[in-house]
Design goal:
38% of the residues lie in helices and 26% in strands. With 348 residues, it is an alpha+beta fold. The radius of gyration is 22 Å and the shape is flat.
């Protein structure tokens, strides 16, 4: 059964808008540049567009089927809610109602509260099994589609190598990397940097062969002082820049930190907000941007720079989350008013 790490919030939004998107280029595009004219190798345009169209069709089929399964799970809780409303157990009623909200909002990107009734946890397990069946049924189609596409890319690469066209070869490399990264995400070939990672944590991950390139941040007051109250992932996807689906923390947006062209987030520097007698949360963060290597599958820690410190007050000693050149594709955290901890998800 697929671990809950990757069960939700995959930004699988693909279209054939722009030749660069069709070619599967992984360079971090800004939203305003997503449809700009880029000299894409002619031999790559048609096969890449065909591949993207078929991949998008599979995504839509899986999304509809898993959506139906999740709706059935939520509806199965209605009789229990009705029963609890007539009982004298408001705590259990509140737990089940919150589970409905959680399931609708996060799906399988987070786990149910362990205090829920056994019947609810059993229904949830059945939903996960059904979701696995849906994904496994589509797996052979994906494998065959990507194998065919990789074969075509190898032929195109050979053609441009013969011509001595290094730019075209680099574009083909990035198209190859797109499928490799996406497959790694779908198969849970990811590592986790940071923590703590708890069952109730929520995952936000891009599954279209892209990178974490920035964060939309904000503040939230914690014991009278501003702390990091918002961290919304920003990804470079096939269509350009896309926001994640989960904004960690409930603070409003006060700004964004985004990598310059050709770079992505490879780590974070973190300063905790320490308050005597209360839980430790994150006060401020600083992004570590690293250059994307020509292979599209790794980052270069030797070619890096940092953002300004953002968030609120961080009175703790700075600590580092560094993925050491591995591609960062998502984040994991526990929902709350402030950002109490951050985990980065990277391709192993």
């Amino acid at each position: 059964m697929t671990p809950p790490l990757l069960r939700r919030s995959c930004l699988c939004h693909f279209s054939l808008l722009g030749l660069l998107a069709a070619a599967g280029t992984l360079a971090p595009l800004r939203a305003q540049e997503a449809n700009s004219e880029v000299p894409i190798p002619p031999d790559l345009v048609e096969p890449a567009a065909t591949y993207r169209g078929k991949e998008s069709q599979l995504d839509e089929e899986i999304s509809q089927q898993t959506g139906t399964a999740r709706k059935a799970y939520v509806e199965s809780l209605a009789p229990l809610i009705e029963k609890l409303q007539k009982s004298s157990n408001p705590h259990e009623l509140d737990l089940v109602k919150k589970e409905v909200t959680r399931a609708n909002e996060f799906g399988s990107g987070s786990a149910p509260d362990d205090a829920l009734p056994v019947t609810v946890k059993s229904a949830w397990k059945n939903f996960l099994k059904e979701e696995d069946k849906i994904r496994l049924a589509a797996a052979p189609k994906r494998v065959a589609l990507r194998a065919s596409y990789q074969k075509t890319l190898a032929e195109v690469e050979k053609t441009y190598q013969t011509k001595g066209d290094s730019f075209a070869v680099s574009i083909v490399h990035r198209a190859k990397a797109a499928t490799v990264i996406r497959t790694a995400v779908e198969n849970n070939q990811l590592g986790v940097m940071g923590g703590p990672v708890k069952p109730t944590a929520v995952t936000d991950v891009v599954c279209g062969g892209g990178y974490l390139v920035g964060l939309d941040v904000g503040q939230h007051e914690f014991h009278g002082a501003p702390a990091l109250g918002r961290a919304l992932p920003i990804y470079a996807t096939m269509e350009g820049e896309k926001n994640g689906k989960v904004a960690f923390g409930k603070g409003g947006s006060s700004g964004r930190i985004v990598a310059k062209e050709g770079y992505a987030i490879g780590g974070l520097n973190i300063r905790d907000h320490l308050t005597p007698g209360s839980a430790t949360i994150i006060g401020s963060i600083q992004a570590i941007f690293m250059k994307i290597n020509p292979d599209g599958l790794t980052l270069d820690p030797k070619d890096s720079y940092t953002s300004d410190w953002v968030g609120g007050d961080g009175n703790g000693k700075a600590r580092e989350l560094n993925c050491r050149g591995r591609v960062v594709v998502g984040m994991k955290n526990i929902p709350g008013d402030c950002v109490d901890a951050i985990s980065l998800l990277f391709v192993k």
